[in-house]
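4.2 Preliminary Data

To establish feasibility before requesting continued support, the project team ran the inverse folding procedure on a target of 373 residues. The structure was first converted into the token representation described in Section 3, and no sequence information of any kind was made available to the design step. The complete token record follows.
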């Protein structure tokens, strides 16, 4: 099979969309399928494994400058036409993905749209007036034109369906339970972060408005607790002022990221606009209790009281109170250990090979439906 992936984000940008695309390319490579990646930005590699990467120009939005947006151009169709795909995979389509969809239609090949970014929620978080309604109109128009849409959580399936998007299927995300595991805890790192045996409560992800990391400020001054922040982004200066005693470890990947997760005691995700929340799943694989808003993707991942706790998603004051009380509860080492063990057990079978084989099934089904027509 020949698969063309048109993605809104790719290396050197590292985020959930990029990581998912990388895992898909790796799986296609391992299964012997030919792959092309069309991605925004002139920086970054021109090949990943067997897959050539065709680049288009990208621009920064005035408000969200850390996420370059690919500019649709004739290069998209030229790249796809030259490659001759059997199916076009649209990774979190919005702008560049729309061009990929138009090209698929011109070429007469099926398109699978993978919904991954809550653009409507992001618009609200950035204070864009009427942005959420406009985003949903565009999402409905775009995804309705695809042969099927794959959504990462049941909440996302429901939201898309309620907004009039047809042919929506559930496709979750995998996690590498060898890379993310309790055994990767770094005693030296722990000793440096918690010299007096503090409870390490951590966040991993982009430091951007939609993540609402400022909510961790409620833990400032809580006895016996130290906040650890892993990641970077435009909110970092503000967060450093709000959390003067927190440890900011910066952006980490690979073994350093795995060690950072495993060296924590509790993981907190703060933002309510996650279609899946891969960071929460990586934390669970690392044996951590996960605290997250009772909204979106975390609802699929966290069984409240058994693998973590779901908190009030939108009211900041209630979220703060629930976060403080739950962190205090998890100061109990035995309870924390039981919940962390249950969290890891709950994701042991959610491997990338398993979910990518499921994706190949979707490719086959849309290709077969096109041939039958």
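Position-by-position output of the design step:
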């Amino acid at each position: 099979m020949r698969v063309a992936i048109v993605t809104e984000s790719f290396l050197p940008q590292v985020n959930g969309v990029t990581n998912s695309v990388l895992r898909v390319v790796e799986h296609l490579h391992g299964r012997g399928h030919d792959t092309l990646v069309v991605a925004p930005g002139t920086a970054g590699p021109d090949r990943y494994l067997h897959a050539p990467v065709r680049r288009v120009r990208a621009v920064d939005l005035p408000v969200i400058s850390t996420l370059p947006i690919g500019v649709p151009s004739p290069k998209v169709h030229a790249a796809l036409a030259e490659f001759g795909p059997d199916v076009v995979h649209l990774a979190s389509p919005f702008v560049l993905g729309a061009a990929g969809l138009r090209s698929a239609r011109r070429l007469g090949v099926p398109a699978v749209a993978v919904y991954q970014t809550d653009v409507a929620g992001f618009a609200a978080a950035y204070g864009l007036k009427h942005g959420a309604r406009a985003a949903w109109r565009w999402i409905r128009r775009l995804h309705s034109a695809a042969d099927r849409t794959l959504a990462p959580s049941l909440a996302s399936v429901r939201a898309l369906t309620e907004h009039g998007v047809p042919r929506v299927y559930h496709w979750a995300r995998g996690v590498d339970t060898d890379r993310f595991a309790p055994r990767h805890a770094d005693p030296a790192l722990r000793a440096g972060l918690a010299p007096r045996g503090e409870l390490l409560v951590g966040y991993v992800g982009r430091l951007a408005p939609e993540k609402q990391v400022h909510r961790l400020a409620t833990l400032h001054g809580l006895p016996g607790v130290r906040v650890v922040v892993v990641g970077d982004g435009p909110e970092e200066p503000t967060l450093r002022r709000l959390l003067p005693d927190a440890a900011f470890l910066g952006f980490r990947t690979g073994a350093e990221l795995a060690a950072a997760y495993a060296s924590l005691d509790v993981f907190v995700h703060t933002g309510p606009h996650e279609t899946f929340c891969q960071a929460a799943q990586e934390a669970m694989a690392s044996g951590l209790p996960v605290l997250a808003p009772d909204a979106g993707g975390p609802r699929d991942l966290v069984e409240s009281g058994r693998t973590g706790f779901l908190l009030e998603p939108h009211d900041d004051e209630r979220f703060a109170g629930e976060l403080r009380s739950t962190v205090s509860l998890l100061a109990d080492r035995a309870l924390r250990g039981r919940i962390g063990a249950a969290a890891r057990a709950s994701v042991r079978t959610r491997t990338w090979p398993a979910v990518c084989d499921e994706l190949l099934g979707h490719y086959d089904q849309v290709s077969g439906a096109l041939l039958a027509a």
